[in-house]
């Protein structure tokens, strides 16, 4: 039972909260006014090609939010609050349309919201190849595509498209992937087939062997599509997210069925504009080199001798020449940094093919 003194204290705190809320709302309104002024300046004189989304600027703002945070709220949570404020303000300047592998409820859809905030306009398409096509045609401002999973490795469709696309990588976001088994059924007994994206089937391989060894497996275009299929067919189970279960009114039979609990997928933002330096960046490139002893080592030495750290290297077979390989390499730094620019120039002289895929900010959102 709360006594009168405690009741008075609570009322005073609540009045203070109301006052703080009013101040926060007024400050957000001021920020929105500034965003509108930015839009007015950028569109002055009828400019229709003005660029409103600046990944390097957003990364700098979010890093500053985390650096000055001294509150009880964890740094990442504080950054997510500001991510939403920035998303609303950006929508006032220009609604941003982002293509992704759908349908709604896929992990890529979740990645879009994490990277751009809830005020973005997601555009679901049926394949990774179509994401590139939609952005290249200008029917979406950006696309978000999965690049690599910590369990299953590279996403081949994305890697193949990056070799030929004129688009540039302008951002990166990581997403923890926790798979659930969904169905109209209340248990595994009534399920005749489990459907999921091939990567998800691979990420849950051991769990499926141990818990559903006699149930047929079928790969489909996306996990969200698998959930849609399970919504329409009671004999199916789907591997997808808890969000998909709510979206498609399915029962969650099991959660966290991925074999590795640190299961994470990296996504890249693709768009037509190059990204300026943010102060903490990565650069991605794809290379091919003469098939002779030491050629890869020779290329990598261009980075090593300049103390440029390589964060990723992946090889895939070339589609042009049998037994030749393409190497996807990520390094620290922006291609406009003098040190890295010098290294890239040297690498171009040592390779038969060198394409810079883009420089982009290291994500401040964990």
Explain how this protein is built:
The protein has 12 helices and 15 strands. Helices cover 42% and strands 25% of the residues. The chain has helices spanning 4-42, 55-68, 75-93, 107-116, 128-137, 156-164, 198-203, 205-211, 223-232, 242-247, 295-304, 338-350; strands at residues 97-101, 121-125, 142-149, 153-154, 168-176, 180-183, 193-196, 216-219, 236-240, 251-255, 264-271, 281-288, 310-317, 325-332, 353-361. The longest helix is centred in the first third of the chain and has 39 residues, at 4-42. The two termini are 42 Å apart. The chain folds into 4 domains: 22-92, Up-down Bundle (Chorismate Mutase Domain, subunit A), CATH 1.20.59.10; 97-177 and 264-269, D-Maltodextrin-Binding Protein, domain 2; 180-255, Periplasmic binding protein-like II (D-Maltodextrin-Binding Protein, domain 2); 277-361, ACT domain (Alpha-Beta Plaits). Strand 3 and strand 4 (153-154) form a beta hairpin. By secondary structure, the protein is of the alpha/beta class. Helix 1 packs across helix 3, helix 2 (55-68) runs antiparallel to helix 3 (75-93) and helix 11 (295-304) runs antiparallel to helix 12 (338-350). The strands form 3 sheets. Strands 1, 2, 3, 4, 5 and 11 form a 6-stranded mixed sheet that branches. A 5-stranded mixed sheet has the order 8-7-9-6-10. Keywords: Amino-acid biosynthesis, Aromatic amino acid biosynthesis, Coiled coil, Cytoplasm, Isomerase, Lyase, Multifunctional enzyme, Phenylalanine biosynthesis. The record marks 265 as: Essential for prephenate dehydratase activity. Residues 97-272 form the Prephenate dehydratase domain. Residues 3-30 form a coiled coil. Residues 284-361 form the ACT domain.
